[in-house]
């Protein structure tokens, strides 16, 4: 009980400091409101010899940016997203206060600063019709939760930093929401009346002191939340509630390099999950105690390579991914070799401008179990403004 009280006192003090920062607005400045957004649509056709599949046409998302600068220090930013032409989500919504040039305070619905794509995922910023599989299964992009913290830049070191405290994923609500195949994707709460038994911590550093090179390091640490704790007395323990909670430690590294017509990207991420034995007994899930994902990607702008003087780009790319959502298991769980997978995706993207692109690619997926998996032929459009 003392540990819980100590944690609560620390949390209240942190919140108070943030609120004090937001309310001490000493500098006035010009106000302005801005809008923007992005959109992407796709057609995907599975292909397998001797088997017929229907294709899928989907307008994946239309996103509206809406923000306002109250003065030189205080600003608000939001993203309102319509997914699959029917679901409306608030993807971001936060208040930011610049304390000094090197430090800003932020609070609201925040993107978790994990990896390359989760925070920068406009369709004209990545190759391929779809985001990398690693950024969907291991890092559950788009991953956002309620939280607060700080961000800024240390120019002398060439480092951008972010550090936040956020509400945790929901591992249990009538059933187990973590799984062997999807990891925590179904456990994201997306700042939608999020159940909060625990707060977690996440941080990211980006080093870009060398021209054309960017190196990133991200981390995420804490425990999940569970609906089973609601209503328990402070001095009351519950083995069922305790069994419904998982510990998560996730580390990610990435690198991006561009020189002339050549662009390179690489990313690796690994997670350690605690208490999986008790959790799997309670939920009948088969969550692994570890998982991983990594990819390497290379692309070449053919128009620039041919020294054609144009603002357009024709990028030919190839990306190889390896990932396993159940790379290690404990207790009586039998590892599923179908979850040890790799993707080879290659294709092209024609940028009609820096903010509008037409894409086509082909993906071949294999797994350790040698299961027949259809290839995918994909076409897409994307834009931002």
Structural class based on helices, strands and sheet pairing: mainly beta
Number of DSSP-assigned strands: 18
Helix content: 10-25%
Sequence stretches where pLDDT stays below 50 over 5 or more residues: 1-5, 12-27
Mean pLDDT: 93
Largest sheet: 16 strands, antiparallel, barrel
- According to CATH, the homologous superfamily is Porin
CATH class: Mainly Beta
Fill in the CATH topology. Answer: Porin
State the shape: globular
Radius of gyration: 22 Å
The spatial strand order of the largest sheet comes to 1-2-3-4-5-6-7-9-10-12-13-14-15-16-17-18
Range of strand content: over 45%
* Count of individual helical segments: 5
Taking the alpha carbons of the first and last residues, their distance comes to 51 Å
Can you write the helix and strand succession as a string? HEEEEEHEEEEEEHEEHEHEEEE
The CATH architecture: Beta Barrel
Supply the number of structural domains.
Answer: 1
